[in-house]
């Protein structure tokens, strides 16, 4: 529970989205992120996560793809405009796009791959057999806990964001602040390594 609740890049992404675009965007981001977690659960259960982590080429592709997508989000955010009279204000994205962004941000996060490889096997009972099923069940439990934690971040950040968005100074700066955070997350993704925990 503690590992899932500790703030990490995914939580920062959800918080940023919720502050910038409201609670609904934060919730959509959280659901997208945890849908991405389900993808990781499936790949870990099938043994594909181990293959990716063992291959420097595959892991590098995943890492740079994740970084590139975050840079793309930064670019899209920085160039988005709400209108001629509000050109510095961030234009909210459709919820289906927000959800898909969350899915891709997590699926392309190499730290999650490493987390499932380093953490879940510690609790597998080889004598009980059905190792893939055990990993899948534990992954589903972690995903459910993650949904709860992510929703807390989304709702709390959404409340703070509503207050901030009512301030003219924040309105003028939010697009740039959000874009810079995405750029920072992209840079951090490049340096993802074996010491990573779930984020």
UniProtKB/TrEMBL annotation:
Compartment annotation: Cell membrane
Keywords: Cell membrane, Membrane, Transmembrane, Transmembrane helix
A molecular function GO annotation: amino acid transmembrane transporter activity
Pfam families named among the record's database cross-references: LysE
The keyword Membrane belongs to this UniProt entry's keyword annotation: yes
GO cellular component terms listed in the entry, alphabetical order: plasma membrane
Membrane-related topology note: Multi-pass membrane protein
Record has Transcription as a keyword: no
Name of the featured protein: LysE family translocator
Lineage of origin: Bacteria, Bacillati, Actinomycetota, Actinomycetes, Streptosporangiales
């Amino acid at each position: 529970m503690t590992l899932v609740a500790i703030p990490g890049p995914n939580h920062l992404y959800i918080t940023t989205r919720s502050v910038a675009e409201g609670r609904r965007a934060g919730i959509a981001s959280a659901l997208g992120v945890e849908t991405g977690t389900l993808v990781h659960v499936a790949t870990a259960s099938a043994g594909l996560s181990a293959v990716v982590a063992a291959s420097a080429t595959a892991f590098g592709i995943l890492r740079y793809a994740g970084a590139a997508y975050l840079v793309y989000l930064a670019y899209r955010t920085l160039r988005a405009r709400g209108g001629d009279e509000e050109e510095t204000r961030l234009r909210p994205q459709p919820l289906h796009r927000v959800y898909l962004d969350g899915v891709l941000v997590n699926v392309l996060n190499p730290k999650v791959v490493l987390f499932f490889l380093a953490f879940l096997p510690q609790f597998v009972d080889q004598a009980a057999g059905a190792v893939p099923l055990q990993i899948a069940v534990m992954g589903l439990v972690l995903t459910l806990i993650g949904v709860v934690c992510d929703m807390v971040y989304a709702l709390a950040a959404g409340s703070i964001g509503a207050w901030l968005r009512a301030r003219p100074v924040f309105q003028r700066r939010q697009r740039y602040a959000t874009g810079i955070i995405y750029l920072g997350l992209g840079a951090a993704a490049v340096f993802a390594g074996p010491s990573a925990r779930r984020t």
